[in-house]
C-alpha cells in the first residue's frame, strides 16, 4: 500500500527552529508538496520538491531525499502565526496525490 | 480575486436526504478536485475532473457524484446522505502541468449528517 508518515503533533517556542519530517512509501514518485493549514481554513501551498536537495523560501525550507523516501520542512524564526497543521503530499506514478494526515504545530511564547 | 468559492459553508443534513455542494472557480483551471478531510486522516480524493466534460473516480467515490458542464463549476452531490459522510469537504483546482501544479483550495464545506 501507499502511505505517508508524519508526526501527529509538535510543540516549539516562538523564535526557535522546528523541523517537521515526512517519510513516504508510494508507487513511483513525481514530486512532494508541503501545504499549511490553519485551523478551520483551507490548505495553502508552501513548497514543491522533485529533485534531491534543499529548497529555501524565506523562513521556510523543504528538503528531499528520494533514495530515503524522506522529506522535511524547516521553519526558522518561528512566529505565533506559524501555529497550524502542515500537510505532506506525494504525487505517485499515476500523478495522484497521496496525503499524510498532517502535523499540528503548536507555538508557545 | 475570488479564486475558489464553495457553498454552503456548513450544513446539517438528515440521513437519507440529498445535498449538492457547490464549487466555482474563476481562475480558468482545467483540473478540479473534491476531497474530504476527517480527523486523523489525510485528505482523501472523492472525484476529480481533468477538463470540462470529463470526470473520474478518486479514492472514496461511493455515495457521491459529480458533473463538469463547464470549466468554472464542479458540484458534488450526495444522493442519499449517511452519517459516515459527516466531514469537511474541500474543492480544489490545479494550475500548471501534471508534474508541478499546486492546488488551490476553497474554504471548505462542513457537513454533518444526522
Identify the notable features of this structure and list them briefly.
heterodimer; A: 109 residues; mainly beta; six-stranded mixed sheet; 11 strands; globular; B: 114 residues; four-stranded antiparallel sheet; 0% helix; 46% strand
Question: What can you see in these coordinates?
Answer:
The complex is a heterodimer of chains A (109) and B (114). Chain A has strands spanning 3-5, 9-13, 18-25, 32-37, 44-49, 53-57, 60-65, 70-75, 84-91, 97-99, 103-108. Chain A has 109 residues and is mainly β. Chain B has 114 residues and is mostly beta strands. Chain B has no helices and eleven strands. In chain B, the strands form two sheets. In chain B, strands 2, 4, 5, 6, 9, 10 and 11 form a seven-stranded mixed beta sheet that branches. Chain B is globular and about 40 Å long. The termini of chain B are far apart. Chain A binds chain B through residues 4, 8, 30-31, 33, 35, 41-45, 48, 50, 87, 89, 91, 95-102, and chain B through 40-45, 90, 98-100, 102-108.
Uncertain residue ranges of chain B: none
* Major β-sheet profile of chain B: 7 strands, mixed
> Separation of termini of chain B?
36 Å
- What quaternary form is this? heterodimer
Which structural class best describes the helix and strand composition of chain A? mainly beta
Order of helices and strands of chain A: EEEEEEEEEEE
**Approximate helicity band of chain A:** under 10%
Number of strands of chain B: 11
SSE pattern of chain B, N- to C-terminal: EEEEEEEEEEE
Which descriptor suits the 3D outline of chain B?
globular
Q: Major beta sheet of chain A, specifics? A: 6 strands, mixed
Round the mean pLDDT of chain A to the nearest integer and report it.
Answer: 96
Residues in β-strands, percent of chain A:
over 45%
**Shape label of chain A:** globular
Query: Roughly how much helix do the residues of chain B carry, as a percent range?
Result: under 10%
Low-confidence stretches of chain A: none
Structural class of chain B: mainly beta
Q: How many angstroms does the end-to-end distance of chain A come to?
A: 40 Å
Amino acid at each position: 500500500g501507499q502511505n505517508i508518515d508524519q508526526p501527529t503533533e509538535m510543540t516549539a517556542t516562538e523564535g526557535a527552529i522546528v523541523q517537521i519530517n515526512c517519510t513516504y512509501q508510494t508507487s513511483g514518485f513525481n514530486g512532494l508538496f508541503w501545504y499549511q493549514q490553519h485551523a478551520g481554513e483551507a490548505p495553502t501551498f508552501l513548497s514543491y520538491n522533485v529533485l534531491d536537495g534543499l529548497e529555501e523560501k524565506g523562513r521556510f525550507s523543504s528538503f528531499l531525499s528520494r533514495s530515503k523516501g524522506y522529506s522535511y520542512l524547516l521553519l526558522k524564526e518561528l512566529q505565533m502565526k506559524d501555529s497550524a497543521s502542515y500537510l505532506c503530499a506525494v504525487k505517485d506514478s499515476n500523478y495522484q496525490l497521496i496525503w499524510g494526515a498532517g502535523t499540528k504545530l503548536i507555538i508557545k511564547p | 480575486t475570488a479564486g475558489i468559492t464553495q457553498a454552503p459553508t456548513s450544513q446539517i443534513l438528515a440521513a437519507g436526504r440529498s445535498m449538492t455542494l457547490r464549487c466555482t472557480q474563476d481562475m480558468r483551471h482545467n483540473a478540479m478536485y473534491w476531497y474530504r478531510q476527517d480527523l486523523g486522516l489525510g485528505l482523501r480524493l472523492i472525484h476529480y475532473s481533468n477538463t470540462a466534460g470529463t470526470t473520474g473516480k478518486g479514492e472514496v467515490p461511493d455515495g457521491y457524484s459529480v458533473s463538469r458542464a463547464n470549466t468554472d463549476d464542479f458540484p458534488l452531490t450526495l444522493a442519499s446522505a449517511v452519517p459516515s459522510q459527516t466531514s469537511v469537504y474541500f474543492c480544489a483546482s490545479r494550475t500548471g502541468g501534471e508534474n508541478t501544479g499546486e492546488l488551490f483550495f476553497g474554504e471548505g464545506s462542513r457537513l454533518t449528517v444526522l
